[in-house]
Amino acid sequence: MDKNRKIGLRIHDIAEGLKEIQTSGPATQFKNTLLLGKAASLALHLKGHDIIENMEAFEYAAGELGIGLELEHVLRELEEIEFIRRANNKIEITVPTFVDAYAVLGERWLELKPKETELKTVHILNRIENNPLKTSKVISDFSMDATEKRVIYEIGNSGTYLDQFHTADGEAITFSPALTELNPQKLYNFSEKHADSDLSKMLTEVRSFQGIPIEKIQNNVVREACYSGILLQTSVGVGTSKHHYIFAPMDKVSPENKVILDKARAILSCVRHGEYHVSESTKIRSANLILNAMKTRKMLGGHPAHKSQYGLIITKGIARLSSSTASSPSLIIIDTTENMLAIDLATEMLGRSSGRTLATNQDVQQVLFQPDNYASPSTTRVRYKKEIKKSIQTQEEIIKKVSMLNQRIYNAFD
Question: 86 — alpha (psi -120 to 50), left (phi > 0) or beta?
């Protein structure tokens, strides 16, 4: 069961990486992985619901997850593994505890008989989950020829789940950006550029004040780390009222904790916003008290600024407003296990975070976007799908295969 569960985790990582990539050419070799990976993503968001009745809102939410015309195929797979039941234009949710869900998805993926390229990619990701591996050893251990290696690495690099960096002596190292917050190549280049700076000390300082407003950072090297992606940014507010908050990465983030970590940072960002970027009369005096109220009372009293200050956690399904029309609505925390764990982690981040996630690694689910808000204007630009970064050899192979297909079609009608 553990083997299938790890497969389920990896196909989800791959599908998340490829959802913004055009599935043409070599990426079509990953069709089973894309299908089941999108099913995993949808299952994550359905978890916590009993029934979906507003199908228009549901389709909108699925679209936000990168599931468009293939939604019907994804739903059929979820029906096949008994995660949902459909009747009378409604969806009944029967997703099990998520550890089991990943195992079921992994088992179903094997039943669909994935291609050799898919199999090797999943096994490589599981192999390098904890430690990067010399690329030469990856090629040898998984018996990859030049073409197979090129396809797997090109697609993995485009999907940002498989990459390489080179050591000082030119040794290529394979790692997965999807399995660690710190991009080894980016971190290596940054540390080489700033050899005189103590990178470890820098990360420790930011960890002691997770969610620090970016304008409070005076060290130029630290500020460069913010803009280069070594340190992570969130933002709260819109337009001229938008402010950025900085977080040090965790030493190692397991797939089980990714969504919890994302939610925790969003929660703490909103609280920091209340500490530093609202009027003096409404400033948060104690972040701990606010987080404690979120956990115990599961609400914050009515205030006209809730919509702007807590918009980030509303869109992430962590909270909702008590009314969409009231001038001073209350903020209601959506009571799910994942949201409570995220509040716990946000509280832990107020202290001197060790940089490690909570010891209890649990798979997490985001709730579906609130149906009554789905039609609100999106603050995100339209996302155009990127093309896979193809080598000359791959482009030539695509042209050759399409030409062969065209010739067969021509001959059939000649």
Answer: beta
Q: What is the pLDDT of residues 245-290, one digit of tens each?
A: 999 876 555 556 778 888 999 999 999 999 998 887 788 888 999 9
Q: Are 225 and 212 in contact (CB under 8 A)?
A: no
The CA-based dihedral angle spanning residues 280, 282, 286, 287, taken in that order and rounded to the nearest 10 degrees = -110
State how beta strands 212-213 and 243-247 pair. Answer: antiparallel
CA distances (Å), origin 354, targets 75, 176, 208, 210, 271: 41, 22, 9, 11, 20
Please give the angle made by the CA atoms of 320, 371 and 309, to the nearest 5 degrees.
30
Count of CB atoms situated within 10 Å of the CB of 63: 13
**Closest-CA residue to 315 (of 61, 59, 71):** 61
Cβ pair 191, 337 in contact under 8 A: no
State yes or no: pLDDT of 226 exceeds 90.
no
Give tens-digit pLDDT for 297-350: 999 998 888 888 898 898 888 988 888 788 889 999 999 888 998 998 899 888
The angle at the Cα of 375, spanning 369 to 380, to the nearest 5 degrees, equals 75
Which burial class, exposed, middle or buried, applies to 228 when counting CB atoms under 10 A from its CB (0-12, 13-18, 19+)?
middle
Q: Please, what sign has the CA dihedral across residues 303, 308, 310, 311?
A: positive
| Cβ atoms of 245 and 299 closer than 8 Å | no
Instruction: Supply angle C-alpha 90, 93, 94, rounded to 5.
Output: 140
- The answer to whether 245 and 210 are in contact (CB under 8 A) is no
With contact defined as beta carbons under 8 Å apart, do 79 and 51 qualify? no
Interatomic CA distance for residues 332 and 321, integer angstroms: 6
Q: What is the dihedral of CA 141, 147, 153, 155, to 10 degrees?
A: -140
CA distances from 257 to 43, 112, 126, 262, 363 (A): 16, 28, 17, 9, 6
- The phi and psi torsions of 272 (rounded to 5 degrees) equal -60, -40
Surface-to-core class of residue 380, CB atoms within 10 Å of its CB (0-12 exposed, 13-18 middle, 19+ buried) = exposed
